[in-house]
Design brief:
The protein has about 80 residues and is an all-alpha fold. The two termini are about 25 Å apart.
């Protein structure tokens, strides 16, 4: 392994593999129902926009839940 900083990751290979094991079946299901990466991006954007509106209204719990829920879409859109 090289000592260059670009070769280092904050996420361990074990964590990356576990996350991939959870994400791949979900991504395949999204593809089967016809969602494209752009469609997933739009869904995530709309959801986080609603979260921002909730935060602006000081509905902190709802805003936090929405950010977590729709932030996950960023994982799947490539």
């Amino acid at each position: 392994m090289s000592d260059r900083p670009s070769d280092q990751s904050l996420v361990s290979n074990d964590t990356r593999n576990r996350l991939r094991g959870l994400a791949v079946p979900i991504a395949l299901a999204m593809g089967r129902i016809g969602l494209t990466p752009n469609g997933i991006t739009v869904i995530g954007f709309i959801g986080t926009t609603v979260a921002a509106s909730a935060a602006a209204a000081q509905w902190w719990l709802a805003a936090g839940i929405l950010v977590l829920a729709f932030g996950i879409f960023d994982l799947f859109d490539g």
